Request: fold
Amino acid sequence: MMDYSKILNRQIQGVAPSAIRKFFDLLEDMPDAISLGVGEPDFPTPWHIRDAGIYSLEKGFTRYSPNAGFSELRRQISSYMMRRFSLKYDPMGEILVTVGGSEGLDLALRCILEPGDEVIIPTPSFVCYGPLVSMSHGVPVLVETKVEDEFRLTPEQLKAAITDKTRALILPYPCNPTGGIMEKQDLEAIAQVLQGTDIMVISDEIYAELTYGVHHTSIANIPGMWERTLLVNGFSKAFSMTGWRMGFLCGPRELIGQIIKLHQYGIMSAPTTSQYAAIEAMKNGDADIEAMKAEYDARRQFLLQGFRDLGMECFEPKGAFYMFPSIKTSGLSSEEFCEQFLLKEHVACIPGTGFGPGGEGFIRCCYATSMKELGIALEKLEHFLKHR
Amino acid sequence: MNNLLRLLESDCTLSKKQLGAMVGASPERVEEMIRDLEKKNIILGYKAVVDWDATDRNDVTALIEVKVEPQRDTGFDRIAERIYQYEEVEACYLMSGSFDMTVIISGRSLKEVSNFVSLKLSTIEGVKSTATHFILKKYKDNHLIFKKQEKQEEGFVFV
Reply:
């Protein structure tokens, strides 16, 4: 019998499997359950975008794309980044089309990390950052953000976390799971700490289009920060294109030029059909973003009011499509709360603890689901809180 | 106001709270607005969209093109009234183009519909001719697709 633990890479074995999985397993046996669990838009990809993908297949466009992605797509991304976020990236050398935002994150980390390098990660945040850092032989340094700061990373927290081994800071805003955002003045304060250092920012801006009442500012918009930022974005959340696996990475050509080696040897190129659909999204999709955003915003306000009417504390999330209400008054831990809520009322939420330090006492509720279901979920929550 | 109407038109089962969040008004204000719209006859009613083909009911629906002779003083309206007063008439529109009115009716059988056309509709004074088209299959109505949409396999994915 082979002892696979001897041949498996230790870093990979050291990464814990997802603690959230058991909720999904429970969910599988509850076909009637309402899921506020999966962070994915409930809208199908707009038809004109799907149609562009189908049309490319009809034309027989099924070969590899260039490693960096089709030049037309890179040009469109460049124009999109200028149009929507006032950011300038040269389509020839400063943009790489990736397989979802996730690949962009992985590439960015692998490109800059040496064994033992530290990466500062604000938490609660998306689950992939820590494991990706570890698998690149780096050391995740988790910084717990606070509800009283609306889950922003403060310059004081950043300063305290920096050592001479710090190689990068991951900025996950708008934030999954908290819905927190960093505004211009917050980013300026972070920039002040970083300027004059060799610390890179890996800015995960996959939810950049989904901010409510405030326009998204990227750290790359702050003077002096463009050259030290690798910006990760993609089509999944803004255009409801999760399954197409389309993302992009923007940054200085000295970095993108190296990163492309990882991409070309590991991935080759992003899916051709998806790239044709993505071109259509960039060209004619701005109105789709606005329509979906308006819908999310209404749900956001409905759910926020609903939580508050039930006496739950919840800070107003201004980004992404998540609410992160406090369940501390229930006397239950996040996990107990989610498990009991699921078993008794058949509504799935995710315990805040799944997103790292700072998550205890909170649950993540994704409101990318219909108004109707959100209404039922709130009724069930009320019943749960009363009859627990 | 139009925003509220658009929302109600797409789903009239939304609660006042939900509608309020969507139009940026309190639930009480939404209630008031709806009552006002009903009073003004802007909201005429609330109905479910039913796929009768999925049930054991075998009704047939026909779309009838009607040519009429407009009457002095009352134009088409008087004839339209004589047509739409029949219980069987689901919809009645004045049209531009090569005929004047569209009348949609449902009946229990082909015979019932043809009886309506030949005995009732055609005999109305001012109706010059009719052309009856039976609807064979409904694919989409009121923005709703009749075919049950297939769902993609769901498995564990944590995002």
About this structure: Chain B is about 30% helix and 20% strand. Chain B has a mean pLDDT of 93.
